[in-house]
Design brief:
The chain is α+β, with helices and mostly antiparallel strands. The chain is about 30% helix and about 35% strand.
């Protein structure tokens, strides 16, 4: 199994999605972040059914960087309780998975 993970989160608007994506790549917590088209989310929050438009992010990183990645998302996310879900990558193009690992590695100092 690969050490690559895909982390999913949603942001309320394009500027906050762009800011988070840029911060994660700049800090080498992610090799790549896809900012997807707006979607409509329906969920229950504090006993009420909510419907809102959100911007999904697909964040490609490595399993070892997950704790720091999660902390960075929490610190830079406007939601009180953001969706942060990591999915392991079972298979993929070896060269691409190597690139994700190299670009999301922790560089001391």
């Amino acid at each position: 199994m690969s050490e690559t993970i895909i982390v999913l989160t949603n942001l309320p608007d394009a500027p906050s999605a762009q800011a988070l994506a840029t911060a994660l790549v700049t800090q080498r917590l992610a090799a790549c972040v896809n900012i997807l088209a707006p979607c409509h989310s329906v969920y229950r929050w504090e006993g009420e059914i909510e419907t809102t438009q959100e911007i999904p992010l697909l964040i490609k990183s490595s399993r070892g960087r997950y704790p720091a990645l999660q902390a960075a998302i929490r610190a830079n996310h406007p939601y009180e309780l953001p969706e942060i879900v990591a999915v392991p990558v079972e298979l993929g193009l070896a060269g691409y998975l190597d690139w994700v690992a190299a670009e999301s590695r922790d560089i001391p100092g």
